Amino acid sequence: MNKKTRGSVLLFDKHKYTLLIIGLVVTALGFLLMIGGSSDDPTVFSDKIFSFRRLTLAPILVLAGYVIQIYAIMKKTTNTQDKTGQKK
């Protein structure tokens, strides 16, 4: 096939980009939830670092964001071409 009849098919369509952005936002939210918990006085220990939000919720969100991103990358693309070079 020559270049004129072959055409180009994008690897990512709008739906895949949407899933990638959602995964990125969920991952960023998980990292933002891990921020904080420090004490104002460095000689005093603070129990704020052991909260549910930092130990459980934030890592679950980070992992969920990565899973969404991997799914978006591995998902089969819907925009394909037939033998005549026309996009379906």
Structural key phrases:
single chain, 88 residues, mainly alpha, 53% helix
Descriptive overview:
- With 88 residues, the protein is mainly α.
- The chain has a domain at 11-37 and 45-74.
- It is 53% helix and 0% strand.
- The chain has helices at 3-6, 14-33, 52-74.
- α2 (14-33) packs antiparallel against α3 (52-74).
- The longest helix has 23 residues, at 52-74.
- The protein is rod-shaped, with a radius of gyration of 22 Å.
- The model has no long low-confidence stretch (mean pLDDT 84).
The pLDDT mean sits at 84
Beta-strand percentage?
under 5%
> How many alpha or pi helices?
3
Oligomeric state of shown chains: single chain
What's the arrangement of secondary structure elements?
Layout: H1 3-6, H2 14-33, H3 52-74
Short description:
By secondary structure, the protein is mostly helical.
